[in-house]
Amino acid sequence: MVIRRTARDYRRFALEHPSLSQAMLPAPKPGEDEELYAAMASPVNVLADSLTEAGVDEVNTVHLISALRAVVHGFGGRRNSAAPRGPRCRRGREIALAAVSAARQP
Predict the structure, then answer these.
(1) Does some domain include residue 24?
(2) CA distance 25 to 19
(3) Any residues with CB less than 8 A from the CB of 4 and at least 6 apart, and which?
(4) Residues 48/61, Cβ–Cβ less than 8 Å
(5) What Å distances lie between residue 60 and 20, 24, 72, CA to CA?
(6) What is the pLDDT along the chain (106 residues), one digit of tens a residue?
(7) CA-to-CA distance for 22 and 14, rounded, in angstroms?
């Protein structure tokens, strides 16, 4: 599904560019920096369109994107820190992504 593909690609980006990945946090709010907000919203809009095409309603699309971002940044941050890694971390990431993927509809 689109969620797993996005998570995989996002994780790859975070591993290859840890400083850029960290610079994305926190995301700007509308009105803070309009140009940066628009640039960072662009890929979110692509993901939202993909989720809509996959049959996810608008309300759940917002929640799925928020959950996906939390999972990817959370596990990505662990990868680039002194936090424990290995099979348990991979398994935790897979469980979290499965939960996000399963939450497509109310």
Answers:
(1) no
(2) 10
(3) 97, 101
(4) yes
(5) 28, 23, 18
(6) 677 787 778 778 877 887 877 777 777 777 888 888 888 888 888 888 888 888 888 888 888 888 887 777 776 655 555 555 555 566 666 767 676 666 655 4
(7) 8
According to DSSP, residue 60 is labeled H
Task: Count the Cβ atoms, other than its own, within 10 Å of residue 51.
Answer: 23
Looking at the 3D structure of the chain, how many domains does it have? 1
Q: Within its chain, how far is the Cα of 18 from the centroid?
A: 15
- Is residue 48 classed exposed, middle or buried when 0-12, 13-18 and 19+ CB atoms within 10 A define those classes? middle
Length of the chain measured in residues = 106
Give start and end residues of each alpha helix (H) in 17-56.
18-23, 34-53
- pTM metric for this prediction: 0.63
Question: Does a structural domain hold residue 27?
Answer: no
Give the range of the structural domain holding residue 91, as residue numbers without chain letter: 2-19+35-102
